[in-house]
Structure formats: structure tokens, C-alpha cells
Specification:
By secondary structure, this protein is mostly helical. It is about 75% helix and about 0% strand. It is built from 16 helices and no strands. Helix 1 crosses helix 6, helix 1 packs across helix 13 and helix 9 runs antiparallel to helix 10. About 55% of the residues are buried.
Length: about 500
């Protein structure tokens, strides 16, 4: 849900106009691709909501809070690599290979999670799942651009966005039902056959969507060949830097996971500066100092996802271990959050022309701050029903603020650089989630080692998220007050 679908895509030659929409999105020649992609995204969405719902039970069975945050941060660190690798593979080898690899790793991660005998093994499985979950939407967006006519693409993105609605409605309840009737392991394993079905439906359609200009490689002018070679070298350098970033961020997270103090200090002293170096060189110049325009907007996306997802990962734990209440309350909060995010996305679409991205983001951050204050109150003993209300408001907040950032970035992108600009905001998105969940997990782990209650530990998480949200509110002043005119 954190990856924003592209709002502008190139037209497909020869398929514009009325001829393109004959039979609509569900025409026989498009139906396998549409059904397969929607089913695949639905699986990823169901997995995300279901695992968050049952994680307190998983923790009780496998033991300890030390690696609790890693279950989420490892997933999102893996997804960063999956997004980049799948995008590069799609450009060179077509869509079938990255899709099959992503779906296969997602399935392998599910199996490892379902049979995990320790939290460490579960984290390994979640990292593999994350890589697959990053590769799947990255491949899906390219498949839409190459396989769906331009007039039908807005409808296709609307259909894929609703793939989150059904999991939100039934995912938490179904996960709890499986857990009580069988075991939490069934929540992982029940999805494996559906992954196979999704692959069988989608693979034939993707096989026909080869890499762009595949037939022109031997005939392009030398200048274009040289440019392609430079782009290839740049992609490889970017991938190496991203791998270093993932390792360095992992070292920082490991420092807060309970190693001996000298080891923790060494990990932090090495990992933190290397992470900062990589972030500075991967994101657009000026991002760290909130330079107006694309840099500030990219930075704001990371602040938003950090603040939201660092808290989101610990909502259910707050309800169960923090307050001793039933898991279904946390599941209801997560479900309402997803519905409110979807509703707010439609609200911002109607208001962005009148209010502009700056105002919408400021409203979103204010609502998120209020939501996080509500979660602090819940952790400290407020009525447990406030969890559902507060986190529903949190979903509405991110729904208001999320899309205007993408609209702003794409409007400011120079012609021919839309892809690189979109990749920058997606990278900031993923980094915000990974850092937020990872550092929040470190807060809970350190609180557990200090002998504090879970309620005090998650209070620290919500306070951390609250501080970042306040920074985001202040930084949102750097957004334009109106959607910029498209750069030409």
C-alpha cells in the first residue's frame, strides 16, 4: 500500500482512442493479465494485514521482543532491493523473469515463515517475502504500461487499488480465525497455493510483454547504444550502493537488538555514517536540506512513511501485550485504517486543485499527530476502543498526504526523467518504512532489556513517531501551494 502507482504513463502506439477500449479492461485478450495482477496484489495485501494482526501470538510462541521489529523492517529492506532489481530486469529481460522470481521468493518466504522455529528464521523468511513483494508491484506497473492501452490505465490502477479493500475487510478476521482454528502458521501457509494460481494465470500474459526495443538492439545508432551502456553502468552502481545501504541500515537495527554493548556501539558507529552516505547519494541532491521542489517533496515522503508505519507495526502489540486485550481489536483498527486511507485518497483527489498539496499535507500531518497522541493515550490506559478511532484517523491522515506528494513530484519532473524521479520518491517511501519499523523495533527491544513493560515500550514508539510527524508538519511548508504546471 505504501507504493504509489504512477499517475502518468506513456501511450501505447496504435492503441489510443476507441479501438483501445473495445471490450474494456476485461476483454478476453486482457483478462488473464488483469486477473493475475489483481490476485497477486491482493495476496501481498492480505499477507501484510494478516501478519500484523497475528504477530503478538507469533512472538509469544517463538519468544521475545528483541526481533519483533525485524519482522517488519526486514520485510521492507528486502522490498527496496526487490523494487530496484525487478525494474532493471524488466528493462533487459522482459517481465516474466522478474515476476516469476519475485513470486517464487514470496512463496519461499511464506513457507519459511510457516515452518519457522525461531524469530530469527521468521525474519529470514520475511526478508525473502519482502524482496518478492517489492518485485511484484514493480513488475505490475511495467506490465500495465506495456499491456494495457492508455485510455484504460486509470481504470486499471483503480482496480488494483481496490485489491487492498477486500483484504482490509476480511484479512484480520480471517487471520484470527485461522490462528484460533489451527495455528498462526496457517496464516503463512494458506497463501502458498494461491500464489501458484496467480502465477499460472499471469505468466502467459507476461511472456508476450518483452523488454522494450528488444528488436532494435542491433539497429540503434551508436549514440543511443552508448547512452544505453552508460545507463546500464549507472544502474549497476546504484544497485551496489543500495545493497550497501541495506547492509548498513541492518547494522544499525542490529545494534538495538540486544548484542553486547561493545558490539552494539561498533555496529552503530559503522552503520550510521555509511547509511547516511548512501542515502545522500541515492536521493536527489538537496533532499536532506529540504531544498524546494522535488528534493523537499521526496524528503517529506520519507518523513510521512516513517511516522505512520513505525506506529502501524505496533498497534496490535499495544492492544494485546500492552493492554491485555483481544487481538481482534487491533485487527479492527488495522482494517479501519486501510478503509480510511482509501477514502481519504478519493477526498484528496477532489480537493487538491482547490487546496493544493501544501495544505493537504499539512492537514494530513495534523490529523496524524492527533492520531499518534491518541495511541499514546491508549498505551497509557485510555479506553481501548480509542485504538480503533485513533488508528482509523491515522489511515485518513496518510491518505490525505500521500498522493499529493507523488502528484507534485511528477509535475516537477523534467521531460524524460519521470522514471528516475518516481524511483526517488519510491526509494524515500521504502526507506521511511524500513527505518521507522526498524528503529521502533529497537525502542521496544531496548525497553524489554531494561525490564520495562510493553506498554512503556510502545509508548516510546508512538512518541518517536509523533516527533517525526511534527518535523513533517514543519517541513510540509516547503511544498508548493498549488500543483505545479507540468515541466516542458
Amino acid at each position: 500500500m505504501s507504493i504509489e502507482p504512477p499517475t502518468t504513463v506513456d501511450a501505447v502506439p496504435g492503441e489510443d482512442g476507441e479501438d483501445a477500449v473495445v471490450g474494456g479492461l476485461w476483454a478476453p485478450q486482457r483478462r488473464p493479465l488483469v486477473v493475475g495482477l489483481v490476485l497477486t496484489i491482493t495476496l501481498v495485501a492480505f499477507e501484510a494485514l494478516a501478519i500484523a494482526t497475528v504477530m503478538p501470538t507469533v512472538k509469544d510462541d517463538l519468544g521475545g521482543l528483541t526481533l519483533y521489529g525485524w519482522v517488519f523492517s526486514g520485510f521492507f529492506l528486502g522490498s527496496l532491493l526487490g523494487i530496484v532489481v525487478a525494474g532493471q530486469m524488466a528493462d533487459r529481460h522482459g517481465l516474466l523473469l522478474p515476476y516469476a522470481a519475485g513470486l517464487g521468493l514470496f512463496a519461499v518466504g511464506l513457507v519459511i515463515g510457516g515452518f519457522a522455529n525461531s524469530m530469527f528464521v521468521l525474519v529470514v523468511g520475511r526478508c525473502l517475502q519482502g524482496f518478492g513483494a517489492g518485485a511484484i508491484p514493480a513488475t505490475a506497473y511495467v506490465a500495465v504500461a506495456r499491456g494495457i492501452p492508455a485510455p484504460l490505465r486509470p481504470r486499471m490502477f483503480a482496480v488494483t487499488s481496490t485489491a487492498w479493500v477486500v483484504p482490509a475487510a476480511i484479512g484480520p478476521a480471517a487471520a484470527l480465525g485461522l490462528e484460533h482454528a489451527m495455528t498462526w502458521r496457517a496464516v503463512f501457509l494458506v497463501l502458498v497455493p494461491l500464489v501458484v494460481v496467480a502465477g499460472v494465470l499471469t505468466a502467459p500474459a507476461l511472456r508476450h510483454l518483452g523488454p522494450p526495443e528488444a528488436g532494435e538492439r542491433l539497429t540503434v545508432p551508436n549514440g543511443r547504444r552508448a547512452a544505453a551502456a552508460r545507463r546500464h553502468d549507472s544502474d549497476r552502481a546504484r544497485l551496489r550502493l543500495l545493497i550497501v545501504l541495506v547492509v548498513a541500515v541492518g547494522m544499525v537495527f542490529a545494534a538495538g537488538s540486544g548484542p553486547p554493548l561493545p558490539v552494539a556501539v561498533l555496529l552503530a558507529l559503522v552503520g550510521a555514517p555509511v547509511s547516511a552516505y548512501c542515502v545522500i547519494h541515492l536521493l536527489p541532491a538537496g533532499t536532506v536540506r529540504l531544498a524546494p521542489g522535488i528534493p523537499a517533496t521526496v524528503a517529506l515522503r520519507g518523513l510521512l512513511t516513517f511516522a505512520f508505519f513505525s506506529a502501524d507495526a505496533f498497534v496490535t502489540l499495544t492492544v494485546t501485550d500492552g493492554r491485555g486485550k483481544a487481538e481482534w481489536i487491533g485487527g479492527a483498527a488495522l482494517a479501519l485504517c486501510t478503509f480510511c486511507w482509501t477514502a481519504a485518497s478519493w477526498v484528496q483527489e477532489r480537493l487538491i486543485g482547490r487546496l493544493g498539496p501544501r495544505r493537504l499535507d499539512q492537514i494530513g500531518f495534523v490529523v496524524l499527530i492527533a492520531s499518534l497522541i491518541g495511541m499514546v493515550a491508549v498505551a497509557q490506559g485510555a479506553p481501548i476502543a480509542l485504538t480503533v478511532v485513533a488508528w482509523g484517523a491515522g489511515g485518513f491522515a496518510i491518505g490525505l498526504a500521500y498522493a499529493p506528494q507523488a502528484v507534485t513530484v511528477l509535475a516537477l519532473a523534467p521531460p524524460g526523467q519521470e522514471g528516475a524521479t518516481s524511483a526517488a520518491i519510491q526509494l524515500s517511501d521504502g526507506l521511511g518504512i524500513a527505518l521507522g519499523t526498524g528503529l521502533a523495533g529497537g525502542v521496544v527491544a531496548l525497553a524489554d532489556q531494561a525490564g520495562w513493560s510493553v506498554a512503556r515500550g510502545v509508548t516510546g514508539v508512538f512518541v518517536l513517531a509523533l516527533v517525526v510527524a511534527v518535523v513533517g508538519l514543519l517541513a510540509s511548508a516547503r511544498l508548493p501551494d498549488r500543483v505545479p504546471a507540468q515541466v516542458t
